[in-house]
Amino acid sequence: DVVMTQSPLSLPVTLGQPASISCRSSQSLVWSDGSTYLSWFQQRPGQSPRRLIYKVSNRDSGVPDRFSGSGSGTDFTLKISRVEAEDVGVYYCMQGSHWPFTFGQGTKLEIK
Amino acid sequence: QVQLVESGGGLVKPGGSLRLSCAASGFAFSDYLMSWIRQAPGKGLEWVSYISSSAGNTYYADSVKGRFTISRDNAKNSLYLQMNSLRDEDTAVYYCASMGYYDSSGHWIENVQHWGQGTLVTVSS
To answer: Which of the residues A20, A21, A112, B84 has the least number of beta carbons within 10 Å of its own beta carbon?
Structure first.
């Protein structure tokens, strides 16, 4: 199975400051059709996970533009340009290029 | 709008059984591969099982293989998870989630966008 490794696992951030989460895969996530199926999910306390980003850099409908995704191959990043209070929660990367799909361990974002 | 509504969770003794259900609406359920994902208290997300659109193919995590059975009824837009021989470590919130579908050209479209609210399974004596 593809191992997804996130860092950091804990991310204290001051309101209004940027935040960045790294996700590395144990093998390339470029699929046979040329697409890279790397998604980012946000899980607020007490809620179900919500997808923010799909195929590395595409924001889902309703996701604020302060969230952005980038990367290629095996290295990916989720960036929040200015953290707001509602961004508190756990963020997961997920690969959908190889069966079975796998998640990273999660990064807990909290306000400093 | 898209809805996935899980039910069937509860408290069960070790060795017992439960059947989870997931009712889907608002999207082409019969076209989608569907999955169960679980989250133990304070832990991360773990794929438990998934099933192809026609139910012809299934996958199980090693931790549940031989004990859990996934199934679906496309006529009822419903997904199921039969859980037998439950263990303490199966205690978790279980989510129903979409995985993706094959378009009319046979191309895979990954889409893990739709999630239910989850149902809590507690295994304890």
So the answer is: A112
DSSP state of B48: E
CA pair distance A53, A41, nearest whole angstrom: 7
Instruction: For residue A110, count other CB atoms closer than 10 A to its CB.
Output: 13
In a structure prediction context, what are the per-residue pLDDT tens digits for chain A, which is 112 residues long?
Answer: 999 999 999 999 999 999 999 999 999 999 888 899 999 999 999 999 999 999 999 999 999 999 999 999 999 999 999 999 999 999 999 999 998 999 999 999 999 9
Contact A64, A80 (CB under 8 A): no
pLDDT in tens, B40-93: 999 999 999 999 999 889 999 999 999 999 999 999 999 999 999 999 999 999
Query: Which of B110, B111, B117, B119 has the most A C-beta neighbours within 10 Å, making it the best mutation to test the interface with A?
Result: B110
Structure-block tokens of residue A77 = 């990043």
Alpha-carbon distance of B94 to B39, in angstroms, equals: 7
Residues of B in contact with A54 (CB under 8 A): 110-111, 113
DSSP B32-94: EEEEEEEE-TT---EEEEEE-TTS--EEE-TTTTTTEEEEEEGGGTEEEEEE-S--GGG-EEE
Q: Contact B88/B124 with Cβ under 8 angstroms? A: yes
**B59 and chain A: CB distance < 8 Å anywhere?**
yes
